[in-house]
Amino acid sequence: MHPILKVHQACKSFQQGNHKVKVLERLDLEVNKGEKVAILGPSGCGKSTLLSLLAGLDNPGSGTVKIDGTDLANINEDQLSQTRSEKLGIVFQQYHLMRNLTAVENVGLPLEILGTADFAVRARTALKEVGLDHRATHFPSEMSGGECQRVAIARALVTRPSLILADEPSGNLDQKTGDEVMDILFNLCREHTISLVLVTHNRELADRCDRSLLLNEGALEDLAR
């Protein structure tokens, strides 16, 4: 059985004036079904660049990124959008909810884009899983930061993706709220056997994952417990 995520020898560099800056250098990563992997590293080490590659928002200069066996560089834009919609869920630090949509409309949006007939019913079920079914008709401006992040988690999980990419999901929240949000994310990934790649500065959060990796000089290395 192939891994849910496989990155092989990925390289990425950017041109800055006359200089080429290498960000990722022959990076390898495999994540199996239901596995939770934390990626740590200082600001500017390339974590955001790596997440962009994993999400199919950017291509490596060389090497491959495969989601559930599909090489993201070998499919057209429509196929890439379809793969992202079906296979990936993304949770951002800043929530990225649509301000003019209610909680249930935000959560149902990925299903609506996919043409799923019962998107509203499934969106309400996803909201219930994160404990916010009573907030279904509220707009983001009417909810707390923790509630907005729970809506974002419901949106990421509503399609039952193979993989969740989470970028500092508790970074904007106080400790107690952040812990509650992360409990929900970890529990739902476990319940639905969804793989998780968590980018974080928080070692305690990283220790809750199956593995912790450090992004250092463009490559990933295992961190001892």
Overview of this protein structure:
This protein is of the alpha/beta class and 225 residues long. The protein has a single domain, classed as P-loop containing nucleotide triphosphate hydrolases (Rossmann fold), CATH 3.40.50.300. It is 34% helix and 28% strand. It is built from seven helices and ten strands. The strands form two sheets. It has a six-stranded mixed sheet, sandwiched between helices. A four-stranded antiparallel sheet has the order 2-1-4-5. Strand 4 and strand 5 form a beta hairpin. The longest helix has 17 residues. The protein is globular and about 50 Å long. The two termini are 27 Å apart. The relative contact order is 0.20.
Uncertain segments: none
CA-atom Rg in angstroms:
17 Å
Number of helices: 7
Task: Give the rounded overall mean pLDDT.
Answer: 92
Structural domain count = 1
Indicate the overall shape: globular
Largest sheet descriptor = 6 strands, mixed
Quaternary arrangement of the chains shown?
A: single chain
User: How many DSSP-defined strands?
Assistant: 10
Q: Tell me the distance between the termini.
A: 27 Å
Looking at CATH, the homologous superfamily is: P-loop containing nucleotide triphosphate hydrolases
Q: Could you please say which CATH topology applies here?
A: Rossmann fold
User: What is the level-2 CATH architecture name?
Assistant: 3-Layer(aba) Sandwich
Counting helices, strands and paired strands, the structural category is alpha/beta
